[in-house]
Design brief:
The chain is an alpha/beta fold and about 280 residues long. Helix content is about 50%, strand content about 20%. It is globular. Bound molecules: ligand C2E and magnesium ion (3 copies).
Length: about 280
């Protein structure tokens, strides 16, 4: 490349980076005001027992609607919330809201469903975090055994020594722990014996390729078998077709979550569809 060309591409990338920085700053300042302006809501995606076809529980998923920015995906704003420390307050909002919603839902049901909440590993570092969790669960009279915290494997591993005892304390308080997006991080298998978890969630990217790649099929079958040997619950995320579901069932995967059953639902829609159904 000529000097001029090099300079051209440098300027081009520089411009791209500046645009990204500008976008992030814009998101950050909007994010700071979002809680105060009630721009967040929580939706619930059912998790279905594959054997029975009945609901087992729901995963709480955060939604953000901002006047200027429209709907912003959590994939885009959670990392910024983590970097700025806003995740602590936002995370508590998700927890309080979902506990209130699902404990109320359960009070109207014969059999309670479980609630899964995504946790950023950064939240685990907050002082008195566990005290706050226990207090919130107590306030909403929901049994900690019905609550699962989903933590993404990749982030967890970075800070393993520090985070492990905190996870153990969560388990000691009766909460369940799930390794989210399983298979996308590094050397996942060795962590299964170290981390005090009771569930793994097979990442959507694997379920996507289940029917078209025999390698992926073998991988999923192996994950289920290994999970089984550690007596873990195995959840498949991103299940979109009956064929995927049938295959997962043949591997004896326990729980499925995905558009085949439901998109993430508002509390009203969850009530309408599932309030009077049985559990698995
Ligand atoms: P995740 O925890 O792995 O959640 C599953 C994501 O897959 C959700 O995206 C869900 O809407 C989507 N999904 C479920 N079934 C299907 C399907 O059949 N097909 C397809 N294409 N997608 C499906 P969402 O809600 O956009 O959330 C993205 C990620 O943002 C989550 O991934 C999680 O890592 C993070 N997140 C969401 N809410 C929270 C929260 O309250 N706290 C934290 N820390 N992270 C959150
Ligand atoms: Mg999750
Ligand atoms: Mg996941
Ligand atoms: Mg995921």
């Amino acid at each position: 490349k000529s000097k001029a060309q090099q300079k051209g591409s440098f300027l081009f990338f520089n411009k791209l980076i500046n645009q990204q920085v500008h976008k992030d700053l814009q998101l950050e300042s909007a994010l700071r005001l979002a809680l105060k302006n009630n721009e967040f809501s929580v939706v619930y995606q059912p998790q279905i027992c594959i054997q029975s076809g009945h609901i087992n529980g729901v995963e709480a998923l955060l939604r953000w609607h901002n006047e200027q920015l429209g709907h912003v995906s959590p994939v885009d704003f959670i990392p910024i919330a983590e970097d700025t420390g806003l995740i602590h307050e936002i995370g508590m909002f998700v927890l309080e809201q979902s506990l209130a919603d699902i404990s109320d839902f359960n009070h109207h049901r014969e059999h309670p469903i479980t609630l899964s909440v995504n946790l950023s590993p950064r939240q685990l570092n907050a002082p008195k975090f566990i005290d706050k969790l226990v207090a919130a669960a107590g306030k909403h009279t929901i049994d900690s055994q019905l609550i699962t915290f989903e933590i993404t494997e990749s982030l967890l591993i970075e800070d393993l020594a520090h985070v492990s005892p905190i996870l153990q304390t969560l388990r000691d308080n009766g909460f369940n722990l799930s390794l989210d997006d399983f298979g996308t991080g590094y050397s996942s298998l060795s962590y299964l014996s170290i981390l005090p978890i009771n569930e793994i969630k097979i990442d959507r990217s694997f379920v996507d390729k289940l029917l078209t790649s025999s390698e992926t099929e073998n991988l999923i079958r192996a994950i289920v078998a290994i999970g089984e040997s550690y007596q873990l619950t195995i959840v498949a995320e991103g299940v979109e077709t009956a064929e995927q579901l049938a295959k997962l069932n043949s591997f004896q995967c326990h729980i499925a979550q995905g558009y085949y059953f439901d998109r993430p639902l508002s509390l009203t829609d969850l009530n309408n569809k599932y309030l009077t159904t049985v559990c698995c």
